[in-house]
Amino acid sequence: MKYFFSSMALGTLVFFSACQSGNTAQTADNPNAPHPTPAQHEHAAASSPAAAPAMAKEAAPSMPDFKFYKVKSGIGFTKADIPAGKNTAFILFDPSCGHCQHEAGLLAKNYAAIKDVNLYFISMNDPALMASFLETFGKELVDKPNVEVLYDRNQEFIQKFHVPQQFPANYVYGADGQLKNSWDGEKEIGFVLAEFTR
Q: Domain coordinates of the chain in residue numbers?
């Protein structure tokens, strides 16, 4: 089992490195350009010689238990840490993805509309790559009480929430913890804001 997680971690790094080097210029110039998918990563991990843990093929209908880590402090973050009584949006992203950068920028410019939504940017990338993501692409979201960048050290998202086809992947859960909507890839900002707040 230890070997598998090492292989899976290596596969994740290779996947994200390929994503970063192969498409950074393309996605920066054209946010509508195709981007390597999390599903391609899943396929690479599934070909490992060790038995793979189950991957979530459908979006989790209710918010699963998890343990992620705050990028700035390294402190663990679980479902119990989410403020109650609000919608919660999880955005699975890759810091080098032009679509993810664009969505973060649009959300930042529309912060007033989402100030009452718990907003969590989650990635399996090295925290060093994630540390300046909001400062670079979503300055207005930095240090907001309802916004956090989280490191998925143990790849729990793709095991418990969902394996999306494209980044950014958005998952909106209501105050009751039930899934309201999810989608893969970049959408028009009006749609995103409406789904985050409905």
A: 53-197
